[in-house]
Queue: 2 jobs
Job 1
Amino acid sequence: MEKLQDEKKKQQEHVEKVMARLKHEKDSWFLSRSAKSAKNETITQFLQLCLFPRCVFTMPDAMYCAKFVQTIHNLKTPNFSTLLCYDRLFCDITYSVTSCTENEATRYGRFLNMMLETVMRWHSRKDIFERECANYPGFVTKFRVSNQVSEACDHVAFENYRHVCHKWHYKITKAMVICLDSKDYVQIRNSLIILIKILPHFPVLAKLANIIQRKIEKVCEEEKNKRQDLFVLATSYSGQLKAKAPLMTLESDFHQVNDKSAKSQDASKNAEQGGQPSAAPPSSGSASNAASAAKQVNGDVKSEYAFCLRKWNLSSTDLTVLLYQAGRTQCYRDVSCCSEREAESI
C-alpha cells in the first residue's frame, strides 16, 4: 500500500507540472490576426493537422485526442472555439467513415464515443453546463479583437446548446443512413463498426433510433445471403439497439420544442407508421417536413416548393434537410428566392 501511495503522489505531482506548463503555453497555441481567422482557420488547421491524423492511429491515441480537446476547453484557451470544433466533427462524418480501414473505423468510433460523452454530459443538466461551459471562451458566439470585452449575450445559452446537440444527433443519423444506403461494402462495414462503438451515447432520441433500426433491418435482409460478415455486424448492432429502446427519450425531453414542432412531430410519427419515414426531425422554430408541409400550405407555396426542386435538381429529401436547417416558418419562400450558395449558408 505504501508503494501505491508513493506512486500516486508522484503521478499527481507529474500531472500538476504538466498542467502548469500547459497553462503557461496556452496563449501561444492558436495565434490569429483577426476574429474571422480565430473562428475558422484555427479550427480547420487543428482538425486537419492534429486531430484527424492521430485519432485513428491507435486506440490510446483516439482517447488522447478526445481528452485533449476537453483539456483545451477547460484551460480556457484563447482563439479556440470548442463549439465550432464539435460542430465540424459531427456535422458530416460521411467522408471520414468512408476513408477508414476496419481498424481505423474502430478507433474513430472510440474517439467519437468519448466526444459524445462530453457533449451529452453538458447536455444533461443546466448546472453542469453553467459550471463547465457558460463563461468559457470556447462557447463564445461572437469573436472580438483582444481590446474589446465580450458581453454575456455572446455566449451560448443552455437551451440553445441543447438545440445544437439535437442538430448534431440528426447530422450523425443522416451520415449513417447515407453510408448504410450506399450499397458499398466499406461504407456499410465502417458505419456499423462506428455505430456499435458510439451506442452508449448515440442514438438517444427514439425517433432517430427508429430510423436507424429500419435501415439496419434493411441491411440484414439484403446481406443475409450475400455478405455474411455485414449480416453478422448488422444483426449484432440491431440486438443491442433494441435492448437500449427503453432508455430512449422523446424529442420534447431532449430540447424545447414549440407547439408547431410538436404537431409536425405527431404528423411525422403517423407518416412513419404508414411506412414513410421523415427525412429530418423537427426542432424548435423549424419548418415541418416537406411531406406534411406540402399538404398544409396553399397553392402558391406548393408551386415554390416544386420550383426549388427544379431549380437545383434536388430530391425532396435534400430539400427537406435544407428547410430543416433554415429553421424558419417561411423558409419555403426564403429558399425559393436564394441562390444555391446563399441557401447553403442558411
Job 2
Amino acid sequence: MFSFDLKITHKKTKKKRMTMKITKWLMVIIVVVVVVDSFTYQDQKQNCSKQVNDNYCYNGPRFDNVGQYKSCSVTGTVALTFDDGVDMNIPYVLAMLRLFNMKGTFFLIGQNIQFYPWLVQHIVDSGNQVGWHSYSHAWFSELTYESALQDFYDFENAFLQNRFTGVLRNRMVPSYGRLPHGLLPSSMLPLFKMFDVVPIHWSFLSGDSYVTNSSEIVQVFKSHLKGAIGSLLSIIVQQHEMETVTMDSLYDVLSYLNSTFPKVRFTTVAECVGNIVPMYHESKYHQEDPLCLTGLKKTQSGKNVCCQASCAKGLDCNGANCCGGTSCSSRPGGGEGCCANNIILRNISCSMSRPPCIVYN
C-alpha cells in the first residue's frame, strides 16, 4: 500500500516537474516571438517556414498558396527587388548596385512610367530588370475582374507608348510581376496567364514601410540573416526605392550583404527563379492599324492619338460613323472614352478598345 502511494506521489511530482518545464519553454517561445515581431514588424510573420539556429528563418517556402514565388529556386542567390517606381531615386539605386557588382529588379507602376521613361530605359540598359506592378497600384482584392483586366491593358499600354529600345524593343513587356501589397486573389490568376506574367512575392521584407530610422533597416537584415549559410540562401527581398529610409540605409545594407556573403550572387528575379521564362516577351496586342488609318484619330498638344475601332464596320451600333467617327462621343460607350486630351494628359486608355488608345507618331 505504501509502495503504491509512493508511486502515485512520484508520478504526481514528475508530472508537476514536466508541467513546470513545459511552462518554462512556453515562456521562452513567447519571448522569442515577441523579439522577432519587434524586429521584423507585422508582415514578416508570413515569411517563415523554418528556423535556423533559433533565429528567424531566412528562406521560407518556394510558393505561397496561390502559386506566387516566395523564394528563389536557385540556391546561393538573393534577388533584391524594389517596388513602386519609377522615380528620381533610381539613379542612386543603380549606382549603389553597380558599386557592389549586384543586380536588382524594379517592379514599376504604370502610371509612373510616363513621367520617367528614360529611367526605365536606364534600368534595363544597365543590366537590371523591370517588372509589372500594376498600372494604378490598386488593391486587386477590391477590383472587379473587368477593372483588373483594364489595369493590365493600361500597364502594357504605358510600355508600348514609349517605344523603348534594347531588350524592350519590338513591343517587349515584362514577364515577371508583383501584385501591389503582395496580395493575389485566386480569381485574378487567369489574368497573369493571359498576359504571360509570372507572379513574384517575397521571402523577406526590409520593413521600410514601417521603419522611420534608417539604422533599423540594417539591423533587420542582420537579424534576419544571422547564422545563414550563403550557399543555401535563396531569398527574394522586398524594398521600396521611394522610401527615404531605404535610400539612407542602402549603402550600409549592400555593404553588409557583400561582406557577409561574398560568394552569393545578388541577381535579378528572373535569374533567381532559374529563368523559367525570359525577362520580357512581345505584347499580345495585335496592332493592325499602327498609323490609325481606320481608327478614331484625335490630336492634342501636338500629339496624335489613335483609338482602334472595337466593332466591325459599325455593325454593333446604330449608324456607320459610331465606330471610327470624328467626335469624342462617336464610339460605343460614348462620352470622353477616346478624347485625346484625356488620353495624353491623364494617360487613360480608350474604354472600348483592345488594345487601348495609343500615342503614335
